[in-house]
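Possible race condition, two jobs.
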Amino acid sequence: MPVMSTDRVIRPYRPDDWAAVARIHDAARLDELRDGAEVAAFLPLADIAEGEGLFDGDVWVAEQAGEVVGFAAFADDEVTWLYVDPARYRQGHGRALLRHALAAAGDRPVELTVLVGNDGALALYLAEGFRIEQTKTGRLAGNEAFPATGHIMVRPGPA
């Protein structure tokens, strides 16, 4: 069931959203890597979506004025993907997608990982009740040839 806020709609992903989702991922992922790892580690969504489990759980898109402006995926009590079109940063789309995923989780704790250096995403997650459980350095998910450091964050279920 779509969730509306002003002129934004959060709805389930449809196959005809693929081009927009891939474009958004590829643009926003470059920002994420620029701030938190190495841009050389970039791989387009078309190359990694299946191997990295984009469709292993629920996928939603944020749509505004008929245009897909962001997407999120949620599987096994984890927000696994959350990207917003860089031209739409700081307009509430990421927060709306995150809140939609949290609502889907209900009373269960929710986990996610954010790259160290991705300060905008970190601020969003902290503001939405997540806390840093652990910071780990390892191989970059999606391109294991590169090192990365990430915060593993948890939002506890309601008390």
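Job #2 (started ~2 s after job #1):
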Amino acid sequence: MERSRIKNEEQYEALRDKGYSKEKSARIANTPNAGKKGGEAKPYEDWTKDELYKQAKNVGIEGRSKMKKDELIQSLRTN
């Protein structure tokens, strides 16, 4: 992935410094609202399965189409 395609360069660098791979750092830094703080997002348990699926797609979780809601939550938390 080209560095110019990183939406949140500061977050990308922080993740790389923590030891995350280039791919995972880029995936996280390119998600909507990347790097924003403030606890605005509701807990995953309050999301619909469709919302969880879309978020899983945004961060590149494989096998998401066959996952149940609780599996999507677990995958998002450990990705």
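The chain is about 50% helix and 0% strand.
Logs attached separately.
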